[in-house]
Amino acid sequence: MQKKNTNEIKVGVVSTIGLLLLIFVFIYTKNFDFNSNKTKVLFRFDNALGLNEGSPIFISGVKKGSVNKI
Fold first, then answer.
1. Would you call 67 exposed, middle or buried from its count of C-beta atoms within 10 A (0-12, 13-18, 19+)?
2. How many CA atoms lie within 13 A of 70 on its CB side?
3. How far, in Å, CA of 70 to CA of 53, rounded?
């Protein structure tokens, strides 16, 4: 019976450490960006109706950025 309790304690400690490590990694990499090479692209439209600051920009169906300034 004593052996079973020590195994449960070991599993609990390892699980807790793993969970804390996972939370730390998510917090640490929250602002990490894999695409660090940012390119500023300027467009000029005659009619920008419906376009707002913060609107997403899609290229080939993939979100690539957002509108910074109108």
1. middle
2. 13
3. 6
Instruction: Pull the structure tokens for residue 45.
Output: 């439209």
Has this prediction a pTM greater than 0.85? no
Place of tokens 């990490």: 32
Max alpha carbon distance in the chain (Å)?
Answer: 79
Give the 3-state secondary structure of residue 55. Answer: coil
Q: Residue 40 and residue 67: Cα distance in Å, rounded?
A: 10
Model confidence over 8-57: pLDDT tens digits?
899 999 999 999 999 888 878 776 666 667 777 787 778 878 888 888 88
Write out the residue range of the structural domain in which residue 59 sits.
Answer: 2-66
In the chain, how many domains are there? 1
Length of the chain: 70
Backbone angles phi, psi at 7, to 5 degrees: -65, -40
